[in-house]
Amino acid sequence: MKMTEKHLQTGDALPPYNGRLRLFAMRFCPYAGRCVLVLNAKNIPYDVVYINLTKKPEWIFNFSPKGAVPALEYQKGKALFDSNVINTYLDEEYPEYPLQATDPLRRAQDQLVVENFNTVITAYFTAAYNPQGLQPSHPEIFHKGLELLQKELETRGTEFLHGEEAGMVDYTLWPFLERFEALPLGNAEFALDKSNYETLLTYMESMKQLPAVTSNYLPPDIYAKFTDSFVTGSGGLRASEALSTKPL
Ligand SMILES: N[C@@H](CCC(=O)N[C@@H](CS)C(=O)NCC(=O)O)C(=O)O
């Protein structure tokens, strides 16, 4: 449950803690999105507090040393940060709907899939937020990483990377894949062409049907609006403003 749709900023008070897990997030942060998906998929009750990252409220530093999101307040005043650390904790502390592979080898392989995907993320962030900084190697890195991911899907032969049901590895990659629908953002080199990415696009369609995903999904035009505001130099449209165009 969202405590408020507003992104709290410098000077705003910290809402009172009501005993539930509390996730500090920003609506457009894909890392925070990972935790939202895992909390949703595991049916764990939680609250969300959105933070304005350009004018951070002072108290965010009590939960996250660099004031980054996501951070998870698991007890009043006590928090963990970093999406993967938070998600591993959640999966182990709330074992009812396990999302990690039980086989140690498969769990290690899932971690390698996530690790490999980091190069794709870097190329995406450059394309979306800093197109002037794009090197000819970025589209190549982006597609090499996605081709590897597609190959992994083909080798596993299941609907999701985790198996016939989605798991942690799928929810860890998804917030980025969701945003890739907003590419090419004026650069056709980042397009996900159907002829090259049939398996990957089929997988993405399956992901989009999952209740944990649909409840947090935003369409490409909203992402494009948010990232464009950085590119055009306005210093970043506030998340609440970008969202205000979304029919709720
Ligand atoms: N490794 C971190 C990365 C989190 C991250 O980079 N979050 C961004 C927002 S998407 C952030 O809070 N940046 C700090 C800032 O804007 O000051 C994680 O996985 O949680």
TrEMBL record:
Pfam families: GST_C_2, GST_N_3. InterPro entries: Glutathione-S-Trfase_C-like, Glutathione-S-Trfase_C_sf, Glutathione_S-Trfase, Glutathione_S-Trfase_N, GST_omega, GST_Omega/HSP26, Thioredoxin-like_sf. Signal peptide: none annotated. Keywords: Oxidoreductase. Residues 19-98 form the GST N-terminal domain. It comes from the Eukaryota. Residues 103-226 form the GST C-terminal domain. Belongs to the GST superfamily. Omega family. This is Uncharacterized protein.
